[in-house]
Amino acid sequence: MVLRSKTYKDESNWYKLDNAAKIYPAISGPGSGSVFRVAVQLRQDVDPQILQEALAVTIPRFPTLAVKMKRGLFWYFFDANHETPRVTVEKAPPCRAVEVDENNGFLFRVSYFKKRISLEIFHALTDGTGAMVFLKTLTAQYLTLLGHGLFSDEGILDCEAYPSISETEDSFGKYYDPRIKSKWKEEKAYHVRGTRVSPENLGIVHGIVPTDSFRKLVRESNTTVTGYIAALIIYSIYRTQLHSRIYNSPVKISIPVNLRNYFPSRTVRNFSSYVNVGIKFTGEDRSFESILEQVTETMKDELKQAKLVEKISANVNAERNILMRIAPLVLKNVVLRTAYNAFGEKLFTCSLSNLGRISVPEPMREFIERFEFLLGPPVTNLLNSTVCTFGETMMISFTKVMYENDIEKFFFRFLAEKGIDVTIETN
Amino acid sequence: MKYCEKCKVKIDMELTRCPLCSAVLTGSDGATAGEHGTMKQDGGEVPGAPKDRKPGGSSDDTGDVSRAEDSKYPAAVVEAAYKYNFVLRLFLFISVVISSTCLLINILTFRGVLWSAYVAGTLLYVWITVGYPVFAKRKLGQIIVLNTIATAIYVYSLELATKTQGWGLTYVTPFLFIASTLFITFVILLKRLKWREYAVYQTILVIMGFLPVIFCAVGLVTAIWPSIFSAFYSFLTVTGMFIFGDKKYKDELIKRFHL
Ligand SMILES: [Zn+2]
Question: For chain A, N or C: smaller number of CB within 10 Å?
């Protein structure tokens, strides 16, 4: 192992930012750092020293995460970072921007609080699935160092092995179609109204529900977990904010899609797209059931592989446009920031990111209480939501920069009325 | 575990009121005695001072013992990144006062010369070359490149405005480029560990060093030799970079200039 980490240090790896990553440095500032969090709740208090050791062993296995971001004349790029990242005690608020000088130039933060190990990571490095691979490998290493034996499979990478090319590849570049040009034309979405608070006062509301009873409810409605939650968020916004007035802009939920489920990719970098599911309220009363049906239909339609290829190809081809490429970085940042503020989050009302079922090797299960997943504060919207399932615990979380809590209240009360056992936690 | 009768949900925290609807919670375990502070906080359910409160409705600033024991999130809040910079604002205000006063006097006593434009231009030049690097905390390499470009433009504008062609673009600009390139060469020799970063700025300056030759070609200058000299010095520097920097210099260029 000593030998291997030495060869790793000799290499001068560098990476171009992948297609999805390129927007984040341009739109990130102290207010919103494009940071999200995956965390694991263990059964015992975290030992920071052991965690630090585990991190030092784990990080060389993830060369695309062991980087610092540098400015080129035309693009940012990730350059190998040979320092060791530091473990810190968790501070509030969660998902705040990772400062360059905070952690030896690393673009993530590993912290602990009581029984929880949190990985907060800049979205330009990877998406939820990639971050979860890192967190699971780190946790396995931590448990191994505590003397609980070795763990493998279920997405845990072997820290003794050499990183594979398929893990560090830019899958967007691999699976896009150069012939498809951009033609997005999207309608602006309804914007949640509320009193905006500063990102330091980020509010978190977790609702913990039993996986089985929730899945039963979903099955009875002939939909998917994501479809059900998306429909319920739309319904909650409709009932708490729209009432029966007519709105020209639809309530739209932006749902990130893990493209690894559609293409044979094993990358630990970004590889996700999204679908926007919207409902226009035209004055007549809408029942939850009718919304659910429409959302399920739209999702089924949007989640066809051809449509996803179309979407990523449009983005990759826009990025590979010659004018975009030769513009100096300073100019690109201005253009991307302006475009994001003008469209970006205005195209959806709320995002819903479902990380799915997290699996761990069977012997590891007894040490883990649950996994958590959180998004950072939205830039122009007020609220976003995440779902993360581990065994019998399904966590539906809202992250918000608004004071009012009518939407979550309606959401969880609705689930409780359906007979689901809801437990609430807040920050 | 506490319970909210209104929401029909369990609350896994030692709160007295429901974080969703503020109703008083029912359910097991006491510890209510120490929680009067919390109750007071949650009682006033009016959005009067939203900035001081957590959106969830739970209190965060009472720092009571009950929070420390069962809370799911740490209470310590990192300070806001935004800071009010008084000095910056003061200088900005002084600049506006000076340039607008000059403009006013200039207009009231106009004798054919718009001299207040010189004042405003010079102030802008000082802001770009000194103000911006200081307040935005730029790196040395960036400052040198920025100041070289700004000075070249400033000198050329002066030349045009005063209709005294033959000094700026002909002599000042080429020697300015040479001086900046030489300066970065010294910085690289002194800070060898950070050479990669400076090599990029060095490369930009070297490319700029060839510009005076173009000015020659289009007939903007009165004497040719300083421009030739600048291009020659750039050539020597770039050759030196390739010979001493070896493959690492080439790699660094690929990284920094990739399209
Ligand atoms: Zn309640």
Answer: N
